[in-house]
Amino acid sequence: MPTAAKLFAAFAFAIVAFFTAEVFKPHMPEGTQFGYFSLVSALIGAICGWKVMGPEAGRGNLMALSSGMKTALFMALVALFVFSTYEMLREAFRPSYSGPMEAVVAIFEFAVDYFVAFLAWDVLIVLFVGGALAGSFSEWAARRWR
């Protein structure tokens, strides 16, 4: 059932994901082609905001902060999996792997590489402070429109 809290959470986490992706880009190797990276990240943020934060809004301000950070972490893990899988598929079409297990292992190799780049302090600050603010925004919407 659509609610104002879910709508506001989707919008807020889409913005958080977009800006986190923009802050993340300089931490990748020189010459990396990003394409729709920020927009796909925003879509992942909107879905996570709707599905994870939206139902948890309306339980108080402290819960909103922690739920916002939990949603931000979940959003980052989903994005990590999505982009790692995309890179594996991109490499798979250039016959880089000798078998399917090597391709599956490559997903985790790409994920580790992205995770190391993701551990920059500015990326983590944007993600978690933005997640806490987005959680508070969703809480505000839940209280405003019951």
Entry keywords:
single chain, 77% helix, mainly alpha, 5 helices, 146 residues, elongated
Question: Quick gist of this model?
Answer:
Helix content is 77%, strand content 0%. By secondary structure, the protein is an all-alpha fold.
Instruction: Report the C-alpha radius of gyration, rounded.
Output: 17 Å
**How would you sum up the major sheet?**
none
Structural class: mainly alpha
| Residues in helix, % | over 70%
Anisotropy-based shape: elongated
Distance between the first and last residues' Cα: 13 Å
Report the strand count: 0
- Beta-sheet strand percentage? under 5%
Q: Give the count of helical stretches.
A: 5
Reading the helices and strands in chain order gives HHHHH
Runs with pLDDT <50, length 5+? none
Integer count of domains: 1
Question: Can you tell me about this structure?
Answer:
The protein is built from 5 helices and no strands. Helix content is 77%, strand content 0%. The longest helix has 32 residues, at 61-92. The two termini are 13 Å apart. It has helices at 4-24, 37-53, 61-92, 100-118, 121-144. It has one domain (4-144). It is mostly helical. The radius of gyration is 17 Å and the shape is elongated.
Structural topology:
Layout: H1 4-24, H2 37-53, H3 61-92, H4 100-118, H5 121-144
Helix pairs in contact: 1-2, 1-5, 2-3, 3-4, 3-5
